[in-house]
Design a protein that fits this description.
Length: 256
């Protein structure tokens, strides 16, 4: 493998690591994935990953990472739990809903259609939700973890010299970012920043938003800064998409 090829593997692994850290940051503080955040968020290693994964925005990302690290040292576990509950609550409609399909002004069937599309991406790669987590496909952490998975898969395909697989994985990243994560994440992280400025989750949101915008630039996805409204409450009676119907969704959604 040439130096250039090895560099591409490093970039993909670095991107995966950053997505993993951001996803862990928005889990419940008592979740095992959150408790491992301090191991994931070793500042020097994170900054190295940021410089490998991001070109001209690396220093902005590094500065935001340092700000989050500083907040990690000053905000204890109980304070993070209290803030998490205040922000995200115990239902899908907390102060800041962490679910993509809780946003937007589409028709009454837009939510199940969006859920079906998101689950279709997961199913296409053989991924299923951990039943013990009692979570939905459209949770911000699930979407971030999907990108984490795709970047790791890209690194393995690069390492094995499977160029066709690499192209398909990158295309999937671009489409998922364009149609789901980038569109939803901007509103979500802006709402978190507004509701928790100067706190731990606010710092995490600032870091996450900067990285998502850098990813949009990397993958040539237009950065959608539209501030999405919350979905009308009167559409709550629309049945949610289930996992079984998602398995029937065609893979043509990956076509651009």
């Amino acid at each position: 493998m040439t130096t250039a090829e090895r560099d591409l593997v490093t970039v993909s692994l670095s991107r995966s690591a950053i997505y993993g850290v951001i996803a862990a940051a928005f889990r419940h503080p008592e979740n095992p994935q959150f408790r491992s955040l301090e191991d994931l968020f070793e500042l020097d290693a994170f900054c190295d990953a940021a410089r490998a994964a991001v070109d001209d925005r690396a220093e902005q990302l590094v500065n935001l990472a340092r700000a989050l690290h500083d907040t990690t040292q000053t905000m204890n576990q109980q304070a993070r739990i209290t803030e998490f509950i205040r922000l995200f609550g115990h239902t899908s409609r907390g102060v800041v809903p962490p679910y993509e399909t809780e946003y937007g002004s589409g028709g009454p069937f837009s939510q199940p259609q969006e859920m079906s599309d998101i689950s279709g991406f997961f199913n296409a790669f053989g991924l299923v939700l951990d039943a013990a987590q009692h979570e939905r496909f459209d949770h911000i952490c699930c979407e971030l973890e999907f990108m984490c998975f795709l970047c790791a898969k890209q690194s393995h395909a690069l390492d094995a010299g499977h160029d066709t697989d690499v192209a398909e994985i990158v295309r999937t990243q671009r489409i998922f970012l364009r149609d789901h994560l980038a569109r939803f994440a901007h509103t979500f992280f802006m709402r978190v920043t507004k509701e928790s400025s100067g706190t731990w989750h606010g710092a995490a949101a600032g870091l996450a938003l900067e990285y998502i915008e850098a990813e949009c630039l990397r993958l040539c996805v237009a950065i959608d800064r539209t501030y999405l409204p919350l979905r009308p409450v009167d559409s709550f009676d629309v049945p949610m998409a289930c996992g079984s119907c998602a398995q029937e969704c065609p893979t043509e959604r990956f076509e651009e």
